[in-house]
Specification:
The structure is a single chain. This protein starts with 13 loop residues before the first helix and ends with a helix. It has helices at about 15-30, 40-55, 60-70, 75-85, 145-175, and strands at about 35, 95-100, 110-115. It has five helices and three strands, in the order αβαααββα. β2 (about 95-100) and β3 (about 110-115) form a beta hairpin. It folds into two domains: about 15-120, Alpha-Beta Complex (50s Ribosomal Protein L17, Chain: A); about 135-175. The longest helix is centred in the last third of the chain and has 31 residues, at about 145-175. It has about 180 residues and is mainly alpha-helical. The chain has a three-stranded antiparallel beta sheet with strand order 1-3-2. Helix content is about 50%, strand content about 10%. This is 50S ribosomal protein L17. Keywords: Ribonucleoprotein, Ribosomal protein. It comes from Mesonia oceanica.
């Protein structure tokens, strides 16, 4: 019976499970999203979120605690350098699990786990995505002065004139034949 056993053992011995979670956490921090099974993604979420919380306060002690779990100095430095400033004001929930369906080979339930603040599509603030402006047909922007608008209009008209003349010359050549 598994009374009081609160985490998924994932069918592995303790050393193998800790190594696998440390490697997956390093990959998640490095690539910001990874594909895995749903069970591993849920176990990884429980593993990596306390590490991200520790990275919010950059002290030597916290770096050593995180390194003891991750065992990868590049992942630790990236966690404290890039991830921590983005999640500094977030009270928790640093990862998102998106279910992808079943794997073709063995029908395992697959999921995508990602760091929330590094996704441009779901980012509610829209910081990562550029805002595009709508352009009018005449070429100039609405806020520009009249001098800039006239100069752009003359440039567009100058570009259009040779295009109009070229078909006329072709039409004349066709008419002569």
């Amino acid at each position: 019976m598994r009374h009081g056993k609160k985490f998924n053992h994932l069918g592995r011995k303790t050393a193998h499970r800790k190594s696998m979670l440390a490697n997956m956490a390093s990959s998640l921090i490095e690539h910001k999203r990874i594909n895995t099974t749903t069970a591993k993604a849920k176990a990884l979420k429980q593993f990596v979120e306390p590490l991200v919380t520790k990275s919010k306060e950059d002290t030597t002690h916290n770096r050593r605690l995180v390194f003891a779990k991750l065992r990868n100095k590049y992942a630790v430095s990236e966690l404290f350098r890039e991830v921590a400033p983005k999640v500094g004001d977030r009270p928790g929930g640093y990862t998102r699990i998106i279910k992808l369906g079943n794997r073709l080979g063995d029908n395992a339930d697959m999921a995508l786990i990602e760091l929330v603040d590094f996704n441009e599509i779901y980012n509610p603030k829209g910081e990562g995505k550029k805002k595009t402006t709508r352009r009018s047909r005449r070429g100039g922007k609405k806020n520009n002065s009249s001098e800039e608008t006239t100069s752009t209009e003359t440039k567009t008209e100058a570009k259009e004139e040779p295009k109009k003349e070229a078909p006329k010359a072709d039409e004349k050549a066709d008419d002569k034949k």
